[in-house]
């Protein structure tokens, strides 16, 4: 989503988007494509703070390291983050499983010399043991630590930005009701550290930040829930129309719906 910073277009005024009407806003959001991880559609309609560390910039530095001869980007989405982080090492591959994203990533990355591999997100990855000096991922849906450790060369590094615990739970709980403790513990940094160490990796850096999000109209909510499908699993407009209408009224009367995302920067090393 667009940054909540001075160079971001200002949220649309109360006299523009909300007065378009519930049905028009929802129809517009339902018609918008959801492939890739380009969030420009949200400009003027929603904002999200960005982590202080600047993942794409840090990723570019690691890819440019002369010691990295082969790198792999897991669950690359539409390839937008990786495309902006070149140049790449001599061997650069990326994986993606969702067909619309796969087509987009191939169009974007193949001309840059990246081999885009189609395949399921579950192990085994179609690569040899110790094939990569660097494995990366931005917001992987699932982190398969043993498989990451397997494809890393001795001394190799896993560098990623993960979605942290309780991300956008304000929105999830609006539609689903209170979420239990087990769900709240998912993606907790301490749990991820333990899983990495159990797979034989050494966690060398781990930082977490909680970041403000604002949704300025119900269309932004619908588009977000269609695009980030794990927020409300199985979401459809028809199934949640009454709750959407309720939230539309709340936003119109009270202003933006505020939620929070959590992001964790992760760097783990396979011992040499």
UniProtKB/TrEMBL annotation:
PANTHER family (alphabetical): METHYLTRANSFERASE, METHYLTRANSFERASE TYPE 11 DOMAIN-CONTAINING PROTEIN
Q: Which InterPro entries match?
A: 23S_rRNA_MeTrnsfrase_RlmA (IPR052939), Methyltransf_11 (IPR013216), SAM-dependent_MTases_sf (IPR029063)
Residue limits of the Methyltransferase type domain?
A: 72-159
Q: What is this protein called?
A: Methyltransferase type 11
The UniProt GO MF terms for this protein read: methyltransferase activity
Q: Which organism is it from?
A: Streptomyces wadayamensis
Q: Which UniProt keywords apply?
A: Methyltransferase, Transferase
Positions of transmembrane segments: none
